[in-house]
Amino acid sequence: MQTPTFAASPRSRVRERAGVRVQRARALRQSATDAEQVLWRHLRNRQLAGVKFRRQHPLGPYVLDFVCLEHGLVVELDGGQHAQAPQQLRDQQRTAWLQQEGLRVLRFWNHDVLQQTNEVLAQVLQALTPGPLPHAGEGGNTEDKPS
């Protein structure tokens, strides 16, 4: 007699994929690039403006380099491979997906993080700081709008 085979439920496939992303995130934390290590030294333990950042955080189909969920800010670090056309397209799709989820995305080149760390941190801090309030009668949304 043949044993019945059951297809995996959609829910178990989602859990399986999520488990793979969590494993990948853990592996990425273990093998951080020099730029990721430098930036993490400044972002960890609420060192920048008292804000909580997570690193290599799985979200949807992606693993984000750094994210502050409280402020809806993602910080991505890019190496030289991101200058090539196929990777640029993937990065644009990733950014678009993250923006649809209500997140703002900052991208920095690895060499900028290594050579201009203070400038990178200043840009991250600026993205965390709410902009000036509009003058009376101007109204409008003070949130950053995706470009």
Question: What does this entry look like structurally?
Answer:
The protein is globular and about 35 Å long. 44% of the residues lie in helices and 17% in strands. With 147 residues, the chain is an alpha+beta fold. The protein has five helices and four strands.
Features:
single chain; 147 residues; alpha+beta; 4-stranded mixed beta sheet; 5 helices; 4 strands; disordered N terminus
H/E element sequence: HHEEEHEHH
**What's the overall average pLDDT, rounded?**
79
How much of the polypeptide forms β-strand, as a percent range?
15-25%
Instruction: Estimate the global geometry from the Cα principal axes.
Output: globular
Low-confidence stretches: 1-15, 136-147
Please provide the count of β strands: 4
Q: Percentage of helical residues?
A: 40-55%
Order the strands across the largest sheet as they lie in space: 1-2-3-4
Oligomerization state: single chain
Radius of gyration: 19 Å
The separation of the N and C termini measures 61 Å
What structural class do the secondary elements suggest? alpha+beta
Biggest β-sheet strands, sense, barrel: 4 strands, mixed
Number of helices: 5
